[in-house]
Design goal:
five-stranded antiparallel β-sheet, binds nickel (II) ion, single chain, 169 residues, globular, alpha+beta, binds ligand GNR
Length: 169
């Protein structure tokens, strides 16, 4: 197993639109294991392939506290959305930054599992928030895109400062 490097904002590769997966190989399964390992190590509750510079429609999620609910979604599609809910979000690609985002409260998602078998899942709460956050990544979208221009400007300044600190450390 291996830890993968996570791209950080404003890396333009985070804006790539992911392509569907149509081959379910051993290689893909090893990569999925690496994504889980990277997510748990970070630690995070979700990781989209886009974030590790692999531009295919693949995400892993586990919102449990004890690594007991691993989900892998391939070629995911939200087929139903209902209600609205505000949640404070963070992102492994936007370190040390948190902001409120409004998402659908209840969703239905259909996807393929790591063996290529179709499944459907209804989700609410943190799992629903996380699924919507990860699917955005596959479309090249980040949670910070929902913020006001002023807040986005502040974030850019903060990221520039962090990058300078890193460069001189
Ligand atoms: O670890 C993560 N936590 C989180 C918290 C609230 C809303 C969304 C998330 S997803 C994030 C991991 C990540 O960046 N996934 O893309
Ligand atoms: Ni994210």
């Amino acid at each position: 197993m291996a830890l993968l490097d996570i791209l950080t904002f404003p890396d333009p590769r985070l804006r790539t639109k992911a392509k569907p997966i149509n081959e379910f190989t051993d290689e893909l399964n090893t990569f999925i294991d690496d994504m889980f390992e990277t997510m748990y190590d970070a630690p995070g509750i979700g990781l989209a392939a886009t974030q590790v510079n692999f531009h295919k429609q693949l995400v892993v999620i586990d919102v449990s506290e004890d690594k007991s609910e691993p989900y892998c979604f391939i070629n995911p599609e939200i087929t139903h959305k209902e209600g609205a809910e505000v949640c404070q979000e963070g992102c492994l690609s936007v370190p040390e930054f948190f902001a409120d985002v409004t998402r659908a409260e209840n969703i239905t998602v259909k996807a393929l599992d790591r063996n290529g078998k179709a499944f459907e899942l209804e989700a609410d709460g943190l799992l629903a928030v996380c699924i919507q956050h990860e699917l955005d990544h596959l479309n090249g979208k980040l949670f910070v895109d929902y913020l006001s221009p002023l807040k986005q400007q502040r974030l850019r300044k903060k990221m520039e400062k962090l990058a300078k600190q890193k460069a001189s450390a």
